[in-house]
Amino acid sequence: MNLNKSLIDSDGVTFRRQMIENLKIIEDTFNKVFGYKDLSTQERKELSEFKNALEKEIRAIVMPEMSPLEVTEEVSKSKIDLTGVKHETLSQRIDADINNIIKKDKYSNLVVTQNGTLVYDYSKLSQTIKQVRNIYCIGDSVARGLHAKKNYGQYLSEKLNIPVNNFAVSGATFSTASNNNIYKQANQIQNADLVIIQGTDDDWLYGNGVKIGKDKTDISTFYGAFYQIIKLIRLQNKGVKIICMTATRQLPV
Protein backbone atom coordinates (compact mmCIF):
# COMPACT_ATOMS: atom_id res chain seq x y z
CA MET A 1 0.00 0.00 0.00
CA ASN A 2 1.32 3.44 -0.94
CA LEU A 3 0.18 5.37 2.12
CA ASN A 4 1.18 9.00 2.63
CA LYS A 5 3.81 8.81 5.36
CA SER A 6 4.82 12.52 5.26
CA LEU A 7 1.88 13.84 7.25
CA ILE A 8 1.69 17.56 8.06
CA ASP A 9 0.87 17.96 11.76
CA SER A 10 1.06 21.78 11.80
CA ASP A 11 -2.12 22.20 9.78
CA GLY A 12 -5.11 20.35 11.22
CA VAL A 13 -7.20 20.56 8.04
CA THR A 14 -4.39 19.25 5.81
CA PHE A 15 -3.55 16.51 8.31
CA ARG A 16 -7.16 15.37 8.41
CA ARG A 17 -7.40 15.35 4.60
CA GLN A 18 -4.20 13.29 4.34
CA MET A 19 -5.48 10.76 6.87
CA ILE A 20 -8.80 10.43 5.03
CA GLU A 21 -6.91 9.80 1.78
CA ASN A 22 -4.89 7.09 3.53
CA LEU A 23 -8.11 5.58 4.83
CA LYS A 24 -9.42 5.39 1.25
CA ILE A 25 -6.23 3.55 0.17
CA ILE A 26 -6.66 1.09 3.05
CA GLU A 27 -10.32 0.58 2.10
CA ASP A 28 -9.37 -0.19 -1.51
CA THR A 29 -6.69 -2.63 -0.36
CA PHE A 30 -9.12 -4.55 1.84
CA ASN A 31 -11.67 -4.70 -0.97
CA LYS A 32 -8.99 -6.22 -3.19
CA VAL A 33 -8.05 -8.80 -0.52
CA PHE A 34 -11.70 -9.71 0.07
CA GLY A 35 -11.96 -10.31 -3.68
CA TYR A 36 -9.63 -13.31 -3.51
CA LYS A 37 -11.85 -16.35 -4.10
CA ASP A 38 -9.55 -18.72 -2.18
CA LEU A 39 -9.85 -16.96 1.18
CA SER A 40 -11.44 -19.16 3.84
CA THR A 41 -14.50 -18.11 5.84
CA GLN A 42 -12.38 -17.73 8.97
CA GLU A 43 -9.90 -15.50 7.14
CA ARG A 44 -12.67 -13.28 5.82
CA LYS A 45 -14.13 -12.97 9.32
CA GLU A 46 -10.80 -12.05 10.91
CA LEU A 47 -9.90 -9.62 8.13
CA SER A 48 -13.32 -7.98 8.44
CA GLU A 49 -12.94 -7.58 12.21
CA PHE A 50 -9.44 -6.19 11.74
CA LYS A 51 -10.67 -3.78 9.05
CA ASN A 52 -13.48 -2.46 11.27
CA ALA A 53 -11.16 -1.98 14.24
CA LEU A 54 -8.61 -0.21 12.06
CA GLU A 55 -11.24 2.13 10.63
CA LYS A 56 -12.34 3.10 14.14
CA GLU A 57 -8.75 3.88 15.08
CA ILE A 58 -8.12 6.04 12.03
CA ARG A 59 -11.46 7.86 12.24
CA ALA A 60 -10.68 8.62 15.88
CA ILE A 61 -7.38 10.12 14.78
CA VAL A 62 -8.96 12.51 12.30
CA MET A 63 -11.73 13.80 14.58
CA PRO A 64 -11.36 17.60 14.65
CA GLU A 65 -12.11 17.99 18.38
CA MET A 66 -9.00 16.05 19.41
CA SER A 67 -5.99 17.95 20.70
CA PRO A 68 -2.60 17.66 18.93
CA LEU A 69 -1.31 15.58 21.86
CA GLU A 70 -4.24 13.17 21.62
CA VAL A 71 -3.74 12.89 17.88
CA THR A 72 -0.04 12.08 18.38
CA GLU A 73 -0.90 9.36 20.92
CA GLU A 74 -3.51 7.84 18.63
CA VAL A 75 -1.12 7.85 15.68
CA SER A 76 1.47 6.08 17.82
CA LYS A 77 -1.06 3.46 18.97
CA SER A 78 -2.23 2.86 15.41
CA LYS A 79 1.23 1.50 14.52
CA ILE A 80 0.92 -1.39 17.01
CA ASP A 81 -0.24 -4.62 15.33
CA LEU A 82 -2.50 -7.35 16.71
CA THR A 83 0.45 -9.17 18.26
CA GLY A 84 1.61 -6.07 20.17
CA VAL A 85 4.54 -5.25 17.90
CA LYS A 86 4.99 -1.56 17.03
CA HIS A 87 5.96 -0.70 13.46
CA GLU A 88 7.54 2.41 11.99
CA THR A 89 4.59 3.13 9.72
CA LEU A 90 0.88 2.38 9.62
CA SER A 91 1.36 0.70 6.26
CA GLN A 92 3.86 -1.77 7.75
CA ARG A 93 1.48 -2.45 10.66
CA ILE A 94 -1.41 -3.26 8.30
CA ASP A 95 0.74 -5.54 6.14
CA ALA A 96 1.98 -7.36 9.25
CA ASP A 97 -1.56 -7.90 10.56
CA ILE A 98 -2.81 -9.26 7.24
CA ASN A 99 0.14 -11.66 7.02
CA ASN A 100 -0.40 -12.81 10.62
CA ILE A 101 -4.09 -13.48 9.99
CA ILE A 102 -3.29 -15.54 6.91
CA LYS A 103 -0.61 -17.55 8.76
CA LYS A 104 -3.05 -18.42 11.57
CA ASP A 105 -5.14 -20.54 9.21
CA LYS A 106 -3.17 -23.69 8.40
CA TYR A 107 -5.26 -24.19 5.28
CA SER A 108 -4.26 -20.83 3.91
CA ASN A 109 -0.72 -20.63 2.62
CA LEU A 110 -1.23 -18.08 -0.11
CA VAL A 111 1.51 -17.61 -2.67
CA VAL A 112 1.66 -15.08 -5.48
CA THR A 113 3.39 -16.44 -8.58
CA GLN A 114 5.64 -14.39 -10.88
CA ASN A 115 2.73 -13.70 -13.24
CA GLY A 116 0.55 -12.48 -10.35
CA THR A 117 -1.60 -15.60 -9.91
CA LEU A 118 -2.72 -16.28 -6.34
CA VAL A 119 -2.35 -19.98 -5.45
CA TYR A 120 -2.15 -22.20 -2.38
CA ASP A 121 1.07 -23.92 -1.36
CA TYR A 122 -0.24 -27.26 -0.12
CA SER A 123 3.21 -28.66 0.75
CA LYS A 124 2.88 -27.48 4.36
CA LEU A 125 -0.34 -29.46 4.77
CA SER A 126 1.19 -32.77 3.74
CA GLN A 127 2.58 -34.96 6.50
CA THR A 128 3.91 -37.41 3.91
CA ILE A 129 6.06 -34.85 2.10
CA LYS A 130 7.72 -33.89 5.38
CA GLN A 131 9.04 -37.44 5.70
CA VAL A 132 10.69 -37.44 2.27
CA ARG A 133 14.50 -37.41 2.47
CA ASN A 134 15.35 -37.64 -1.23
CA ILE A 135 13.80 -37.36 -4.68
CA TYR A 136 14.45 -39.39 -7.84
CA CYS A 137 13.20 -38.31 -11.27
CA ILE A 138 13.02 -40.52 -14.37
CA GLY A 139 11.59 -39.75 -17.78
CA ASP A 140 12.36 -37.94 -21.02
CA SER A 141 13.27 -34.34 -21.93
CA VAL A 142 10.39 -32.95 -19.86
CA ALA A 143 11.74 -34.49 -16.66
CA ARG A 144 15.28 -33.57 -17.69
CA GLY A 145 14.25 -29.94 -18.07
CA LEU A 146 15.35 -29.46 -21.67
CA HIS A 147 15.37 -25.76 -22.65
CA ALA A 148 14.48 -24.79 -19.07
CA LYS A 149 16.68 -23.17 -16.44
CA LYS A 150 15.44 -25.67 -13.86
CA ASN A 151 13.44 -28.90 -14.01
CA TYR A 152 10.55 -29.63 -11.65
CA GLY A 153 12.75 -31.96 -9.58
CA GLN A 154 15.11 -29.09 -8.81
CA TYR A 155 12.26 -26.79 -7.84
CA LEU A 156 10.86 -29.41 -5.47
CA SER A 157 14.33 -30.13 -4.09
CA GLU A 158 14.86 -26.46 -3.25
CA LYS A 159 11.36 -26.18 -1.79
CA LEU A 160 11.83 -29.15 0.55
CA ASN A 161 15.59 -28.66 1.06
CA ILE A 162 16.38 -32.28 0.17
CA PRO A 163 18.62 -33.84 -2.54
CA VAL A 164 17.34 -34.81 -5.99
CA ASN A 165 18.74 -37.39 -8.43
CA ASN A 166 17.60 -36.99 -12.02
CA PHE A 167 18.17 -39.97 -14.34
CA ALA A 168 15.89 -38.67 -17.11
CA VAL A 169 17.21 -38.61 -20.69
CA SER A 170 15.76 -36.73 -23.65
CA GLY A 171 13.93 -39.03 -26.06
CA ALA A 172 13.56 -41.89 -23.56
CA THR A 173 10.63 -44.29 -23.99
CA PHE A 174 8.92 -46.46 -21.39
CA SER A 175 9.18 -49.39 -23.77
CA THR A 176 12.46 -51.26 -24.19
CA ALA A 177 11.89 -51.12 -27.95
CA SER A 178 14.34 -48.23 -27.72
CA ASN A 179 17.72 -48.68 -26.05
CA ASN A 180 17.15 -45.27 -24.47
CA ASN A 181 14.35 -46.27 -22.12
CA ILE A 182 12.93 -45.37 -18.73
CA TYR A 183 13.03 -49.00 -17.55
CA LYS A 184 16.84 -48.71 -17.46
CA GLN A 185 16.55 -45.49 -15.50
CA ALA A 186 14.25 -47.13 -12.96
CA ASN A 187 16.77 -49.92 -12.41
CA GLN A 188 19.29 -47.36 -11.13
CA ILE A 189 17.07 -46.15 -8.28
CA GLN A 190 18.02 -47.38 -4.82
CA ASN A 191 16.81 -46.35 -1.33
CA ALA A 192 14.45 -43.70 -2.67
CA ASP A 193 11.74 -41.98 -0.64
CA LEU A 194 9.99 -40.28 -3.56
CA VAL A 195 10.15 -41.21 -7.26
CA ILE A 196 8.58 -39.02 -9.95
CA ILE A 197 7.92 -40.86 -13.21
CA GLN A 198 7.29 -38.93 -16.42
CA GLY A 199 7.07 -40.17 -20.00
CA THR A 200 4.74 -41.50 -22.73
CA ASP A 201 5.46 -38.81 -25.35
CA ASP A 202 8.42 -40.59 -26.91
CA ASP A 203 6.65 -43.96 -26.98
CA TRP A 204 4.11 -42.34 -29.31
CA LEU A 205 6.84 -40.71 -31.37
CA TYR A 206 9.27 -43.66 -31.59
CA GLY A 207 9.29 -45.19 -35.08
CA ASN A 208 5.70 -45.84 -36.05
CA GLY A 209 4.72 -45.70 -32.40
CA VAL A 210 5.26 -48.27 -29.66
CA LYS A 211 2.42 -50.76 -29.25
CA ILE A 212 0.27 -50.16 -26.19
CA GLY A 213 0.06 -53.88 -25.45
CA LYS A 214 -2.04 -55.97 -23.05
CA ASP A 215 0.56 -58.20 -21.41
CA LYS A 216 1.90 -56.63 -18.21
CA THR A 217 5.08 -58.71 -18.46
CA ASP A 218 6.01 -57.58 -21.99
CA ILE A 219 8.33 -54.61 -21.45
CA SER A 220 8.64 -54.04 -25.20
CA THR A 221 5.12 -52.59 -25.09
CA PHE A 222 4.02 -49.40 -23.37
CA TYR A 223 1.65 -51.12 -20.93
CA GLY A 224 4.06 -53.89 -19.95
CA ALA A 225 7.01 -51.52 -19.51
CA PHE A 226 5.00 -49.07 -17.42
CA TYR A 227 3.70 -51.87 -15.18
CA GLN A 228 7.13 -53.40 -14.67
CA ILE A 229 8.77 -50.03 -13.99
CA ILE A 230 6.39 -49.44 -11.09
CA LYS A 231 6.92 -52.99 -9.85
CA LEU A 232 10.72 -52.66 -10.09
CA ILE A 233 10.81 -49.37 -8.18
CA ARG A 234 8.64 -50.78 -5.39
CA LEU A 235 10.79 -53.91 -5.19
CA GLN A 236 14.06 -52.01 -4.89
CA ASN A 237 12.80 -49.18 -2.66
CA LYS A 238 10.81 -50.24 0.39
CA GLY A 239 7.98 -47.87 1.31
CA VAL A 240 8.69 -45.59 -1.66
CA LYS A 241 6.14 -42.97 -2.71
CA ILE A 242 5.59 -42.75 -6.48
CA ILE A 243 4.18 -39.86 -8.51
CA CYS A 244 3.26 -40.51 -12.15
CA MET A 245 3.11 -37.42 -14.34
CA THR A 246 0.46 -37.23 -17.03
CA ALA A 247 1.68 -37.04 -20.62
CA THR A 248 2.35 -33.60 -22.05
CA ARG A 249 0.24 -32.36 -24.93
CA GLN A 250 2.19 -32.21 -28.19
CA LEU A 251 1.09 -31.37 -31.73
CA PRO A 252 2.52 -34.43 -33.56
CA VAL A 253 0.26 -36.71 -31.53
From TrEMBL:
Molecular function in Gene Ontology: hydrolase activity
Keywords in alphabetical order: Hydrolase
Coiled-coil segments on the chain, per record: none
Top-level taxon: Bacteria
Alphabetical list of InterPro entries matching this protein: SGNH_hydro_sf
Record-given protein name: SGNH/GDSL hydrolase family protein
